[in-house]
Design a protein that fits this description.
- The protein contains no helices and 11 strands.
- It has 129 residues and is mostly beta strands.
- The strands form 2 sheets. Strands 2, 4, 5, 6, 9, 10 and 11 form a 7-stranded mixed beta sheet that branches. Strands 1-3-8-7 form a 4-stranded antiparallel beta sheet, with no helix packed on it.
- A hairpin with a 4-residue loop joins β7 and β8.
- The mean pLDDT is 95.
């Protein structure tokens, strides 16, 4: 069982920046494919960014490309999402997700929510106009 705890959300003005963190329990974090998703009120959960087990491969939703950066520190069991030039449409609850089935050598970058087994509780990001 993997426990994921997000932090770093908050209220920021348009054009501002936030850095989200996701701390994972256990020692198997380097074997997890990881991702960030978000869900705005009245909308379905959507993909934001994903990273493979080593951190060498990433993928982003078109809406955040060039503004968001996903990264991981496998020595600290932590996933990050650096969000720059934030817009009101980025307002949502942000969730990190983990999948432990890909294997430690995997290059897989998972962009579908149903590919992930474990989810955090979410952190609210609000961007004011």
């Amino acid at each position: 069982q993997v426990q994921l705890v997000e932090s770093g959300g908050g209220l920021v003005q348009t054009g501002g920046s936030l850095r989200l963190s996701c701390a994972a329990s256990g020692r198997a974090f380097p074997q997890y494919a990881m991702g960030w998703f978000r869900q705005a009120p009245g909308k379905e959960r959507e993909f934001v960014a994903a990273i493979n087990v080593s951190g060498g491969r990433t993928n982003y939703a078109d809406s955040v490309k060039g503004r968001f950066t996903i990264s991981r520190d496998n020595t600290e069991n932590t996933l990050y999402l650096q969000m720059n030039n934030l817009k009101p449409e980025d307002t949502a609850v942000y969730y990190c997700a983990a999948d432990n089935r890909v294997g430690i050598l995997s290059r897989a970058v998972l962009s579908r929510a149903d590919e992930y087994d474990f989810w955090g509780q979410g952190t609210q990001v609000t961007v004011s106009s």
